[in-house]
Amino acid sequence: MAPRFAMVAGEASGDLLASLLLGGLKARWPGLTAAGIGGPKMARQGFQAWWPHEKLAVRGYVEVLRHYREIVGIRDQLAERLLRDRPDAFIGVDAPDFNLDLEARLKAAGIKAIHFVSPSIWAWRGKRVEKMHRAVDHVLCLFPFEPEIYERHGIAASYVGHPLADAIPLEVPRDASRQVLGLTPQDTVVALLPGSRRSEIQYIGASLVAAAVEMNRRRPGLRFILPVAPGLRPMIEPLLAPHAGRVRVELLDGRSHEALAACDVTLVASGTATLEAALFKRPMVIAYNMHWLSWQLMKRMKYQPWVGLPNILLRDFAVPELLQAEATPAKLAEAALAWLDDPARCEAVQRRFQALHLELRRNTAQAATDAIQKILQA
User: Taking the chain (378 residues) in consecutive chunks of 10 residues, what is each chunk's mean pLDDT?
Assistant: First the structure.
């Protein structure tokens, strides 16, 4: 019989990863059902969202506290429903602050708990591995060095590669993407990716737009494109209005992959989008800003000098990171223009990204589905 899965994915990146996983699961079990918390990409795979994924799209301690009661209320309601209806397995996709407590309750009740996307215990909050030991039956890891960490703590884990490495072509469809977006081969294109969370737009959006103004002042004729996550256009448009006479930024409804394929350089908020930019072999400048108190708390628990995923995976500052007070429009513009002025540097980082892409490409949907089938049969 086709299994019944419950799933929780928070924010746009989790929705994307979960939809790719669902594609593999449906190829194995065409009649499966899946429900819980998710987004539009999951819905296109037949997922039934009892709550939208935007409810969990909050980052930073201060921001989480503002929404704490609502988020905990959703988790309690979901747990009660799943304990009553008992799916064959629960798959938590990222969102560890929400999912691990939920998974612990389900595992204690005998429901198999699978976590897809390891929390960054190797980067910060390493003690979280103790909670994972209590909460999960199996971890599906995106990066090759992660299973060994879990095995040392007695947690079953499998390296399944990164689904984005399968979804994004090894050869970047640059010309086709430019044609679809109305860009010419001669255009020098800058993609602005301020994030998919409201808090990210609040803290980062204005700086990226102001950086575009500065870049345009120093190099007139640049083309700027900004993919907008669903529901965030009302937050983005007011950021552009004060600069209407000084820079033209074309807003795209979604289409972040086409924007990354088409651009020459991207200014991008730290997160999954930085890995997407690396898989599209794009030179980038990573930016991030958050509430000052959240930053102070996170900074004290950080184990590595890097924040952006490409730099973490390459264990090097392969691309610039401008964080908090350093993420000024002037510095962002200068770092982006430096890429445009140095083709040899661009080619060197693109070669490193190509090697990373090959390492992460493992047919994740099938590998994860194989692992999940073994878990269901255990």
Answer: 94 88 95 96 96 74 65 94 98 93 97 94 78 96 93 95 94 97 97 87 92 97 94 93 93 96 97 95 92 62 77 95 94 98 98 97 95 94
User: Are 119 and 128 in contact, with CB atoms under 8 Å apart?
Assistant: yes
3-state helix, strand, coil in the chain (%, to 5): 55, 15, 30
Residue 255 burial (C-beta neighbours within 10 Å; 0-12, 13-18, 19+): middle
Mark residue 355 as left, alpha or beta (left: phi above 0; alpha: psi -120 to 50; beta: remaining): alpha
137: helix, strand or coil = coil
Those residues with Cβ within 8 angstroms of residue 345's Cβ, 6 or more apart along the chain or in another chain:
283, 339
Note the Cα 142 to chain centre separation in Å.
Answer: 12
| Residue 268: predicted pLDDT | 97
pLDDT at position 295: 59
- Residue 294's pLDDT is 62
Return the pLDDT at 199: 78
**Which CA distances in Å does 270 have to 158, 193, 233, 292, 372?**
26, 9, 20, 16, 30
Report how far apart, in Å, the C-alpha atoms of 48 and of each of 4, 52, 83, 84 are.
12, 10, 18, 17
* Residue that has been written with the tokens 């795209």 in this structure: 252
- Which of 272, 278, 271, 224 is closest to 247 using CA atoms? 224
Q: Scanning the structure block, which residue is given the tokens 């870049």?
A: 215
Alpha carbon separation from 317 to 142, 249, 310, 321, 369 (Å, rounded) = 21, 29, 9, 8, 34
Q: How many residues does the chain have?
A: 378
pTM score of the predicted model: 0.82
Amino acid at 303: Y
The answer to whether 208 and 192 are in contact (CB under 8 A) is yes
CB-neighbour burial class of residue 217 (10 A; exposed 0-12, middle 13-18, buried 19+): exposed
**Which is it for the CA torsion 337, 341, 343, 348, positive or negative?**
negative
Buried-state track 5-21, b at ≥16 Cβ within 10 A, e below 16: bbbbbbbbbbbbbbbbb
Q: Give the integer Cα–Cα distance in Å for 216 and 249.
A: 10
Alpha-carbon span 286 to 266, nearest angstrom:
8
- Supply 82's token pair: 């799943």
